Amino acid sequence: MNTADNSVVPTTETRQAGRRTWRFLRDRRGNVAIEFSLLAIPFSLLVFAILESCISFAGSQLLANATDDVARQLRTGQVKAAGLTEATVKQLICDQIDILVASGCPGLKIDLRQYSTFKDAAAMKIIYVGSGSTKELASSNFQFDPGKSMTKNMLRVFYEWPVMTDFMRKAMSNLKGSKTLHFASMTWQNEPFDD
Predict the structure, then answer these.
(1) Which residues have C-beta within 8 Å of that of residue 107, sequence separation ≥ 6?
(2) What gap in Å lies between CA 11 and CA 105, rounded to an integer?
Protein backbone atom coordinates (compact mmCIF):
# COMPACT_ATOMS: atom_id res chain seq x y z
CA MET A 1 0.00 0.00 0.00
CA ASN A 2 1.38 3.35 -0.99
CA THR A 3 1.05 6.17 1.40
CA ALA A 4 0.54 9.52 -0.12
CA ASP A 5 3.32 12.01 0.37
CA ASN A 6 1.85 15.07 2.10
CA SER A 7 4.77 17.34 1.18
CA VAL A 8 3.94 20.25 -1.05
CA VAL A 9 6.04 20.70 -4.11
CA PRO A 10 7.03 24.36 -4.36
CA THR A 11 5.91 26.17 -7.43
CA THR A 12 8.11 28.49 -9.42
CA GLU A 13 6.49 31.56 -7.88
CA THR A 14 7.03 30.23 -4.38
CA ARG A 15 10.68 29.52 -5.12
CA GLN A 16 11.20 33.01 -6.52
CA ALA A 17 9.53 34.62 -3.51
CA GLY A 18 11.74 32.56 -1.21
CA ARG A 19 14.86 33.62 -3.11
CA ARG A 20 13.86 37.31 -2.94
CA THR A 21 13.26 37.05 0.79
CA TRP A 22 16.59 35.29 1.31
CA ARG A 23 18.41 37.90 -0.80
CA PHE A 24 16.73 40.71 1.13
CA LEU A 25 17.76 39.21 4.47
CA ARG A 26 21.35 38.62 3.32
CA ASP A 27 21.76 42.04 1.70
CA ARG A 28 23.70 44.33 4.06
CA ARG A 29 23.62 47.47 1.96
CA GLY A 30 21.68 50.24 3.75
CA ASN A 31 21.90 48.66 7.21
CA VAL A 32 23.84 51.60 8.59
CA ALA A 33 21.27 54.06 7.24
CA ILE A 34 18.42 52.14 8.80
CA GLU A 35 20.22 51.71 12.12
CA PHE A 36 21.19 55.38 12.18
CA SER A 37 17.62 56.49 11.47
CA LEU A 38 16.39 54.32 14.34
CA LEU A 39 18.99 55.72 16.76
CA ALA A 40 19.15 59.36 15.60
CA ILE A 41 16.09 60.57 17.50
CA PRO A 42 16.92 59.00 20.90
CA PHE A 43 20.55 60.10 20.52
CA SER A 44 19.48 63.69 19.74
CA LEU A 45 17.13 63.71 22.72
CA LEU A 46 19.93 62.51 24.98
CA VAL A 47 22.40 65.10 23.67
CA PHE A 48 19.93 67.97 24.11
CA ALA A 49 19.00 66.77 27.60
CA ILE A 50 22.68 66.70 28.59
CA LEU A 51 23.32 70.17 27.14
CA GLU A 52 20.23 71.65 28.80
CA SER A 53 21.18 70.15 32.17
CA CYS A 54 24.81 71.32 31.90
CA ILE A 55 23.88 74.90 31.03
CA SER A 56 21.29 74.99 33.81
CA PHE A 57 23.84 73.63 36.31
CA ALA A 58 26.40 76.23 35.21
CA GLY A 59 23.80 78.97 35.72
CA SER A 60 23.02 77.65 39.19
CA GLN A 61 26.70 77.61 40.16
CA LEU A 62 27.19 81.11 38.79
CA LEU A 63 24.26 82.31 40.92
CA ALA A 64 25.71 80.64 44.04
CA ASN A 65 29.11 82.29 43.47
CA ALA A 66 27.52 85.71 42.90
CA THR A 67 25.44 85.33 46.10
CA ASP A 68 28.55 84.38 48.08
CA ASP A 69 30.49 87.36 46.71
CA VAL A 70 27.75 89.92 47.44
CA ALA A 71 27.21 88.46 50.92
CA ARG A 72 30.96 88.84 51.61
CA GLN A 73 30.78 92.51 50.56
CA LEU A 74 27.86 93.07 52.93
CA ARG A 75 29.49 91.09 55.78
CA THR A 76 32.75 93.03 55.66
CA GLY A 77 31.12 96.46 55.36
CA GLN A 78 32.42 96.99 51.84
CA VAL A 79 28.77 97.64 50.98
CA LYS A 80 26.92 99.11 53.98
CA ALA A 81 23.23 99.00 54.89
CA ALA A 82 23.03 102.79 55.02
CA GLY A 83 21.77 103.96 51.66
CA LEU A 84 21.68 100.41 50.28
CA THR A 85 18.73 99.65 48.02
CA GLU A 86 17.26 96.45 46.66
CA ALA A 87 18.10 97.63 43.13
CA THR A 88 21.77 98.04 44.11
CA VAL A 89 22.01 94.48 45.47
CA LYS A 90 20.21 93.11 42.41
CA GLN A 91 22.63 94.96 40.15
CA LEU A 92 25.66 93.62 42.06
CA ILE A 93 24.37 90.07 41.50
CA CYS A 94 23.24 90.70 37.93
CA ASP A 95 26.67 92.04 36.96
CA GLN A 96 28.16 88.66 37.90
CA ILE A 97 25.60 86.39 36.25
CA ASP A 98 24.84 88.34 33.08
CA ILE A 99 27.15 86.09 31.06
CA LEU A 100 24.50 83.31 31.13
CA VAL A 101 21.21 85.17 31.57
CA ALA A 102 19.17 87.65 29.55
CA SER A 103 20.13 91.30 29.69
CA GLY A 104 18.91 92.96 32.87
CA CYS A 105 18.39 89.62 34.68
CA PRO A 106 14.58 89.56 34.27
CA GLY A 107 14.02 86.48 36.47
CA LEU A 108 16.17 87.68 39.41
CA LYS A 109 14.56 88.17 42.83
CA ILE A 110 16.26 88.74 46.17
CA ASP A 111 15.41 88.52 49.85
CA LEU A 112 17.78 90.23 52.32
CA ARG A 113 16.82 90.29 55.99
CA GLN A 114 18.37 90.57 59.42
CA TYR A 115 17.51 88.03 62.12
CA SER A 116 17.86 87.92 65.88
CA THR A 117 19.33 84.38 65.79
CA PHE A 118 20.77 81.99 63.21
CA LYS A 119 18.00 79.55 64.16
CA ASP A 120 15.39 82.05 62.94
CA ALA A 121 17.25 82.40 59.65
CA ALA A 122 17.48 78.63 59.22
CA ALA A 123 13.72 78.29 59.74
CA MET A 124 12.91 80.37 56.63
CA LYS A 125 11.11 78.40 53.93
CA ILE A 126 10.42 79.11 50.27
CA ILE A 127 6.71 79.76 49.83
CA TYR A 128 4.91 79.00 46.57
CA VAL A 129 1.51 80.01 45.22
CA GLY A 130 -0.39 77.59 42.99
CA SER A 131 0.67 74.13 41.94
CA GLY A 132 1.78 72.22 38.88
CA SER A 133 2.26 74.39 35.79
CA THR A 134 0.83 77.47 37.59
CA LYS A 135 3.23 77.35 40.56
CA GLU A 136 5.14 80.57 41.25
CA LEU A 137 7.05 82.19 44.09
CA ALA A 138 4.90 84.00 46.65
CA SER A 139 5.61 87.71 47.16
CA SER A 140 5.99 87.02 50.91
CA ASN A 141 9.39 85.46 50.11
CA PHE A 142 10.88 88.86 49.36
CA GLN A 143 11.82 91.56 51.85
CA PHE A 144 14.66 94.02 51.98
CA ASP A 145 15.92 94.78 55.48
CA PRO A 146 19.74 94.72 55.62
CA GLY A 147 21.34 94.84 59.03
CA LYS A 148 24.05 97.10 60.36
CA SER A 149 27.32 95.93 61.90
CA MET A 150 27.24 92.84 64.14
CA THR A 151 23.74 91.81 62.99
CA LYS A 152 22.85 88.38 61.66
CA ASN A 153 21.70 88.45 58.05
CA MET A 154 20.59 86.12 55.30
CA LEU A 155 20.62 86.81 51.58
CA ARG A 156 18.44 84.52 49.46
CA VAL A 157 18.66 84.86 45.70
CA PHE A 158 16.10 83.35 43.33
CA TYR A 159 16.37 83.15 39.56
CA GLU A 160 13.57 81.83 37.36
CA TRP A 161 15.64 80.00 34.74
CA PRO A 162 13.91 79.49 31.38
CA VAL A 163 14.16 75.96 29.99
CA MET A 164 15.48 76.44 26.45
CA THR A 165 14.75 73.14 24.73
CA ASP A 166 11.07 72.74 23.80
CA PHE A 167 10.75 69.03 24.43
CA MET A 168 12.56 69.32 27.80
CA ARG A 169 10.27 72.03 29.21
CA LYS A 170 7.68 69.73 30.72
CA ALA A 171 10.26 67.43 32.31
CA MET A 172 12.59 70.13 33.69
CA SER A 173 10.33 73.07 34.58
CA ASN A 174 8.85 73.48 38.04
CA LEU A 175 7.50 77.04 37.81
CA LYS A 176 4.90 78.91 35.81
CA GLY A 177 6.02 79.85 32.31
CA SER A 178 8.12 76.68 31.77
CA LYS A 179 10.87 77.86 34.09
CA THR A 180 12.90 76.15 36.77
CA LEU A 181 13.98 77.73 40.04
CA HIS A 182 17.63 78.39 40.74
CA PHE A 183 18.24 79.33 44.35
CA ALA A 184 21.24 80.38 46.43
CA SER A 185 21.48 81.48 50.04
CA MET A 186 24.12 82.85 52.42
CA THR A 187 23.77 83.46 56.16
CA TRP A 188 26.33 85.44 58.17
CA GLN A 189 26.99 87.87 61.00
CA ASN A 190 28.30 91.26 59.97
CA GLU A 191 31.74 92.25 61.13
CA PRO A 192 32.18 95.19 63.54
CA PHE A 193 32.60 97.85 60.89
CA ASP A 194 31.64 101.53 61.21
CA ASP A 195 28.03 102.11 60.17
Answers:
(1) 101, 159, 160, 161, 162, 179
(2) 77
pLDDT in tens, 23-67: 777 777 777 778 888 899 899 889 988 999 999 999 999 999 999
CA dist 20 and 191 (Å) reads 86
Which amino acid is residue 96, in one-letter code?
Q
Residue 145 near residue 194, CB atoms below 8 Å: no
Residue 28 has φ and ψ, to the nearest 5°, of -100, 0
Taking only the tens place, the pLDDT of each residue in 149-174 is 999 999 999 999 998 888 778 888 88
pTM: 0.78
Report how far residue 79's alpha carbon sits from residue 64's, in angstroms, rounded to the nearest whole number: 19
119: number of CA atoms within 13 Å, CB side?
A: 0
Single-letter residue type at 104 = G
